[in-house]
Amino acid sequence: MNPTGLLEVTAVRRVTPRTVRVTFTGAGLAGLEPWPDQQLKLLFPPPGRPVRLPSADGDVMRWYQAYLAIPSEERPVMRSYTVRSRDGGTIDVDFVLHSGSAGPATAWASRAAVGDVLGRYGPDPAYRRPLSTTDILLCAGDDTAIPAIASLLSEVDNAVAFVEVADAAEEQPLPGEVHWLHRDGAEHGSRLLEAVRAAKLPDGSVAAWLAGEASTVRALRRHLVAERGFDKSVIEFTGYWRRSLTQDDAPTAEDLADAAEKLGDSAGWKGN
Ligand SMILES: Cc1cc2nc3c(=O)[nH]c(=O)nc-3n(C[C@H](O)[C@H](O)[C@H](O)COP(=O)(O)OP(=O)(O)OC[C@H]3O[C@@H](n4cnc5c(N)ncnc54)[C@H](O)[C@@H]3O)c2cc1C
Question: What is the pLDDT of residues 110-126, one digit of tens each?
């Protein structure tokens, strides 16, 4: 399947007060292989202009160079999202309308309408990760990680998930064992950290999947390695967003250290 193309909105609905589910159709989606945690880059056009796609296909590096070569006034804004579900030639993407100063993706989602067109890169099977083969899969994340956690929970029957959301109204029906944590005004990530630190995990080998706000993901990973003795290779982790920084801002020293660690583990998620 060509991992790049256009997406057209065919439906928009609020699934919770702060989550907008957008259904897209587009060439190539029908041939998309199913696998859990399908990430994609969405390209948002500048106001009043059609979305302009980079003209290189295939290799992601060439595609990214072509993206950067688009003149800045025409270059779409790029943000990362996850396929929430798919049905034949359509995909659903859930946008969290976050409380941070609204970035372009959140602003777009809050007024998305049938007929709107975005660009995409992905989902790309090159980024498909093997599922863990441990006895238990521990998933932990915030609202932005619900699409990925939902897809993991529907693939495995040995997962325990901890999901932090703004409040009870943000819970969504998910399969399997899910512990919902409500911020209810508390600091972002604090309830999730508390719950994972206090969790009594079932006996057996455990792998972990962590995503959400970057400093919380780091703290969770540190806890699992330093206090629970997890081997780093059994932890899949991604900082999805950073406090006070947009996805366009340069990586911090901590982001670069995380990226280096992930590259070191690029042989695959050794969850066994
Ligand atoms: C692999 C991957 C998959 C992802 N999947 C999803 C998904 O399926 N659904 C989803 O909603 N998000 C998902 N995200 C997170 C999403 O890409 C970010 O939240 C992104 O920053 C949103 O773009 P924006 O234009 O709204 O904000 P930006 O322009 O990037 O940031 C603007 C401001 O908003 C703040 N901010 C950004 N996100 C949040 C947040 N969640 N809560 C509070 N403040 C925030 C930033 O700190 C910044 O101050 C994913 C991220 C990655 C890397």
Answer: 999 999 999 999 999 88
Q: Which amino acid is at 43?
A: L
Nearest protein Cα to ligand 1, atom 45: 100
pTM above 0.85, yes or no: yes
Alpha carbon distance, N-terminus to C-terminus of the chain: 30
Q: Whose CA is nearest to atom 10 of ligand 1?
A: 144
How far is the centre of ligand 1, averaged over its atoms, from the C-alpha of 243 (Å)? 10
Query: What is the 106 CA–ligand 1 centroid distance (Å)?
Result: 8
Q: Residue 107 Cα, ligand 1 centroid: separation in angstroms?
A: 11
DSSP 224-254: IIIIT---GGGEEEEEEEBTTB-TTSPPPHH
- The domains found in the chain, sorted by start residue, are 4-125 (2.40.30.10), 129-264 (3.40.50.80)
What pLDDT does residue 68 have?
Answer: 95
